[in-house]
Design goal:
Strand order of the largest sheet: 5-2-1-6-7
Number of helices: 7
Structural class: alpha/beta
Order of helices and strands: EHEEEEHEHHEHEEEEHH
Helix content: 25-40%
Number of strands: 11
Shape: globular
Distance between the termini: 24 Å
């Protein structure tokens, strides 16, 4: 069974995280939420408290099939500033595991730490203008090798379904599920 880590830093965009977690779990993909803080309790961008499954420091040596990085103005800044987060991403990238930022995370976390490595990506707003090392593509979801990025909250379902299809290696169950929840994918 495929296993995904969703990194939750203080100020994370809760809808991007929850939609992705929900779709992955509905498709029987195992998800662990990892708090990028001292405790498992993390407060989201809109002040919603959540309790993660583990802290990143507890699970930092584990290897997952994919790492999801939700955005959020403060959440992505906090992810980008964490040496543990950057090391976790680098370790997964080196093993060709999926690196999956959505919204501001591609620009701030990957771009801000020199982790785009010439790959094509998408991010929210005009954040791409301050990024070097990658090629910005204006699309809902952009896939380039092991990088799968989403534009933002309005495309969170597209992002989650694209990630699910990659992990499952089959679009059929993903399309069936999209239809089941009345989403055109």
């Amino acid at each position: 069974m495929k296993k995904v880590a969703v990194l939750l830093a203080p100020g994370f965009e809760e809808a991007e995280a929850i939609i992705t977690i929900d779709i992955l779990r509905r498709l029987n993909i195992e998800v662990e939420t990892l708090a990028c803080a001292e405790s498992r309790a993390v407060v989201s961008y809109h002040n919603i408290p959540m309790v993660a499954d583990h802290t990143l420091s507890d699970r930092g040596s584990h290897l997952y099939d994919a790492v999801v990085l939700p955005g959020g103005p403060q959440g992505s800044v906090n992810l980008a500033a964490s040496g543990d987060v950057v090391a976790f991403i680098k370790a997964h990238d080196a093993q060709n595991k999926l690196i999956c930022p959505i919204c501001s995370a591609a620009a701030r976390v990957l771009g801000g730490n020199g982790l785009l490595n010439g790959r094509r990506y998408v991010c929210s707003g005009d954040l791409w203008q301050g990024v070097s090392g990658g090629e910005y593509v204006d699309a809902p979801v952009v896939e380039d090798g092991n990088l799968l990025s989403g534009k933002g909250l309005g495309h969170a379902f597209d992002f989650a379904f694209a990630l699910s299809a990659r992990l499952l290696g089959d679009e059929a169950p993903v399309r069936d599920h999209a239809e089941h929840i009345y989403y055109r994918w």
